[in-house]
Structures are given as structure tokens and as C-alpha cells.
Amino acid sequence: MSTPKIPPPGLLIMSVLSARWNEVWPGLLGELETRFGPAGHVSELFPFDQTGYYDEELGTPIGRRLLAFDALRPLDELARIKLDTNAIEAAHAAGTRRCFNLDPGFLTLERLVLATGKNFSHRIYLGQGIWADLTLIWQRGRWSDFPWTFPDYAGPEMKSRLTKLRQLYKTKLNT
């Protein structure tokens, strides 16, 4: 019999996609920090060009920022966090078109799990219409992806960024 054990908290990360950065930033950052606490890491703006999936809705060219929040959080908050980010997106939408896309997830020593409202064979239902997407795992000193990993997360640039965030997380766990 296994004995239930609460895991260590995770590092809340968030990918922010938009083609309207001048309009939404830094106000959006302030809103996210009000809701989730200070961001200990805010990446520079970098291109999101691995897919055209969001082009029609968000416009082009789409840029991305990757955030990591200071406070480590219980992993079972992921569904609520995704519902919160959905509400923020909706509050800023122009009709049915979002101004930005927020993708929250938890980074731990072992994995990166993103939250989504879309079911798929490899996703685990968390409740409230939200699924957990096992996106990457850490093994043998590097990130490993899966056949379903989004191309932007499978690429070396994102994996390098996530490795730095994993080190930040590891430091936070040890302090």
C-alpha cells in the first residue's frame, strides 16, 4: 500500500503570448502580480513562430514572455490558477478575440505540467473543466519531450530557459 504524501510546492510559471505588447504590458504584469504575487523572473520578449495556431485570434507577429513567480505554490492549485488566467483573458478580450494568451503551469524537479481546458488522451482531468498536460520531464540532466509536446516547448531555446528556471526552483527549495 502506498502512503499518501503531499509533494513539495511547485514553481508557478506562465507563458504570455500577444501581438499587442505595447497595449497590454506592463499593465498585465501588474495584474498578474496582484493575483499571483511578485514575478521573480520575467523574460525578455522573444518570438513565438513555431506555429500559426494563434495568428487569427491574437494577430501577428506574436511575441512571448515567460514568467516565474516568487512564491512556491501547492500543486493542487493548478486548476484554480487556470480558471483565474481564463478570467483575466476574458476581461481583456475584444469581443471573442483575446488580446493575449496565458498558459500557466508548474515546474518541479521532475516535470513541467501545463494547465489546459482541452481534453486529450495523455491529459489528466483535475476538475472544473481543467486538465493537466505533462509537457516535459527531467531525466538524465536534461528535459525530455513526448510526441504530444508542443513544438515550442520541445525546442532547445525553451528547454534552455526552463533549465534556468529549474535551477531557480531548486535554489528556492533549498532555502
UniProtKB/TrEMBL annotation:
Q: Name one Pfam family in it.
A: DUF4416
Protein name, as recorded: DUF4416 family protein
